[in-house]
Amino acid sequence: MLTFTTWAAVTLLGSASLCSASSADCSAGVGTGWLVCGVLVVGYLTLHVTIDLAEHARERFGQRRAAWLTCRAPLLAGITTGAGAGAALALGPDRAEGVRQALDGVPGTEAAFISAVVAVLAALWGLTVAARLPSALRQRYTASE
Asked: CA distances (Å), 12 to each of 9, 34, 42, 44, in order?
């Protein structure tokens, strides 16, 4: 849960800093420098939590594949959630108009487009991880018998 939360936070902060850097209409009320600083600090803490989870999973499962897949599931779910929330915030109050402008390539909508692409790619990768996880766990338990 902590891995999910920290990855969602760092992705949302990254989307907010990208949004405030690319458009004056999308200001977070905080300077871009502070947002980038926040991304770096929270990103460092997020990496520390993720590495700790990976080591714990490796000790628990005894193999890299199952541990890797177990560790990546909350990571990708957090990235999907954070980037999706960042895209929704960058689109503004009129979401349909924001999507139309982002797809038309209107300057200042790059943050919404990039955040949406990151959310979709992370979601697809997460589905792949979720599909591969049962076979990795099955292989781990049949190998130990």
From this structure: 5, 14, 11, 15
